[in-house]
Amino acid sequence: MLDLADLRKSFPATETGGARVEIVRVPAFALGAGEQTALRGESGSGKTTFLHLIAGILAADSGRVTVDGVAMTSLGEAQRDRLRAQKLGYIFQTFNLLQGFTVLENVQLGMAFGGGVDKARARELLGRVGLGHRFNHFPNQLSTGQQQRVAVARALVNRPKLVLADEPTGNLDRVHSRAALELIREVCRESGAALLLVSHDEEVLRQFDRVREFGELNEVTR
Fold it and tell me: Is 39 exposed, middle or buried (0-12, 13-18, 19+ CB in 10 A)?
C-alpha cells in the first residue's frame, strides 16, 4: 500500500545563513494493505514532515513515494491533490477545519474532493465519534477535543486506502483519546486501510503490536 525509497527533504534555515538543513532522510519504508503501524518520535524530529511527504502535501527533494501502486512523487500538484482525496485520509495535529462551515459540512467537503458526497456516511461517522448532536455547530463552538473528533471523522469518511495520523489524540483527554483511537483502528480494519500513526504518547503506542522508532528510520536524527 505504501512504499518509499531514498526520501529526502531539506529546508533553508536562517541560523545557517540560508544554507539548507536536511530534516528527513529515510532510505526505505513500506506498509502493507491493512497493516497498522505506529512511529515513536519526539517533537521536532521530522515526523510531521515525513507524513507530509508521504501525502504529497510537501514535495520531496529526491526519492520515491508510491501509494497503492501510484508514484506520488512523479505527479504534479493537481494530480497529487486528486490522489490524496481518493486514497488518503489525513488526521492533522492542528485539525485544519474550515471555520466558516458547520461540522457536517466540514466532513462533507472532505468527501466532495473524493468523488461524491454521502451525507448518511458523514452523519454516521460523526455519530460514532460522539458528535451526532453537533452537526450544525461551527468549529469555534466546539471544544478542542470535539474539533479533533471532527477531524478524525473527516479523514475516515472517504474509506481511504491509507490513513496517516499525526498525534491524533494529542488534544483529547484519556477517555476520548482511547475512544478516538479505537474508532480510527476499527474503521481502518473495516475498509482494509493501512494506518500509519505517529505519536510520542506511550499510552497510545501501547495499543499497537507494531511500533517503529522514527529515529531509526530517519538517518538525519541518528
Answer: buried
